[in-house]
């Protein structure tokens, strides 16, 4: 069987994040990618200049079209923008029983907001309990919990467990916004820390789309049949390679993308 993963997310016209990054990661990892576009952004490496949500009937129709025909083995959910889109996606996925990776996209690398303030509660209440893996960065985890961001691994583990208590089966606390020479990610479930993933911080400004890429890589590995720990470990290794190779690319004048196809071309 051909492994198939579906991304439900926003479109990045600059190609470094969102649907475009997800499909690149799926392809690089040997998985066929399908997509449902929830929002269209006018975006490049410097800024997001416009955002428009896709109509709710069209969001539903896209999901129904894909799931009624393709044997989707895993779903990645990214930018949803509004409470109404979140509710629509949750309703359309009611009959889906496969793994779901939820990346609670809130802010672009440029600093522009991608999730309305009033949508955070809806995301927490409606979609977080559907997540096989919830993958927030440190500011996103804090916003979901209504508290301050943390930095120390003990505090990251505590926040991860708090998010599990809200309904997520597993939480990957991403330490990219932390400090120190080593970046630490923690995979947490209701029993505690399942895996600690570390990597040296790479001195590059080309990190646009790292969150999208990691979450879609996890979904791709789940679609290929890996368990959660194995999928997260493989996706982490893939992303680190993409970050290390990012400066091989010359894309735009702001925060450029990681190199999704670093193992295939330079």
Looking at how many chains there are and whether they match, the oligomeric state comes to: single chain
Mean pLDDT: 95
Bin the strand percentage.
15-25%
Gross geometry: globular
Structural class: alpha/beta
The low-confidence runs, each spanning 5 or more residues with pLDDT under 50, are: none
The CATH topology: UDP-N-acetylmuramoyl-L-alanine:D-glutamate ligase
| CATH C-level name | Alpha Beta
Q: What's the architecture, going by CATH?
A: 3-Layer(aba) Sandwich
At the fourth CATH level, what is the homologous superfamily?
Answer: Ribokinase
Terminal CA distance: 30 Å
Number of domains: 1
Count the helices. How many?
A: 8
Q: Largest sheet, described in full? A: 6 strands, mixed
Give a description of the structure.
- This protein has 266 residues and is of the alpha/beta class.
- The chain has a single domain, classed as UDP-N-acetylmuramoyl-L-alanine:D-glutamate ligase (3-Layer(aba) Sandwich).
- Helices cover 35% and strands 21% of the residues.
- The chain is built from eight helices and nine strands.
- The protein has helices spanning 18-28, 56-67, 83-92, 119-127, 138-145, 153-165, 210-223, 228-244; strands at 4-12, 32-43, 48-53, 74-77, 100-102, 133-134, 171-173, 182-189, 192-200.
- The chain has a six-stranded mixed sheet. A three-stranded antiparallel sheet has the order 7-8-9.
- β5 (100-102), α4 (119-127) and β6 (133-134) form a beta-alpha-beta unit.
- It is globular.
- The model has no long low-confidence stretch (mean pLDDT 95).
């Amino acid at each position: 069987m051909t492994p198939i993963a579906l991304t439900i997310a926003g479109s990045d016209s600059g190609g470094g994040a969102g649907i475009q990054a997800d499909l690149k990661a799926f392809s690089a990892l040997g998985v066929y990618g399908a997509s449902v576009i929830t929002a269209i952004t006018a975006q490049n490496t410097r800024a997001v200049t416009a955002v428009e949500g896709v109509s709710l009937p069209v969001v539903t129709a896209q999901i129904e079209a894909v799931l009624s025909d393709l044997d989707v083995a895993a779903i990645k959910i990214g930018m949803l923008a509004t409470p109404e889109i979140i509710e629509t996606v949750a309703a359309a996925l009611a009959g889906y029983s496969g793994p779901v990776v939820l990346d609670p996209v809130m802010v672009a690398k440029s600093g522009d907001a991608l999730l309305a303030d009033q949508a955070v509660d809806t995301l927490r209440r409606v979609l977080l309990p559907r997540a096989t893996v919830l993958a927030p960065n440190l500011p996103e985890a804090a916003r979901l919990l209504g508290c301050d961001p943390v930095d120390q691994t003990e505090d990251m583990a505590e926040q991860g467990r708090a998010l599990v208590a809200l309904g997520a089966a597993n939480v990957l606390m991403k330490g990219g916004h932390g400090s120190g020479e080593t970046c630490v990610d923690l995979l947490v479930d209701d029993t505690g820390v399942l895996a600690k993933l570390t990597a040296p911080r790479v001195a590059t400004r080309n990190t646009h789309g790292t969150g999208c890429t990691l979450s879609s890589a996890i979904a791709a590995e789940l679609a290929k049949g890996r368990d959660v720990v194995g999928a997260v470990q493989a996706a982490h290794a893939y992303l680190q390679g993409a970050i290390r190779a990012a400066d091989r690319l010359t894309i735009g004048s702001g925060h450029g993308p990681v190199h999704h196809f670093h193992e295939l071309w330079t």
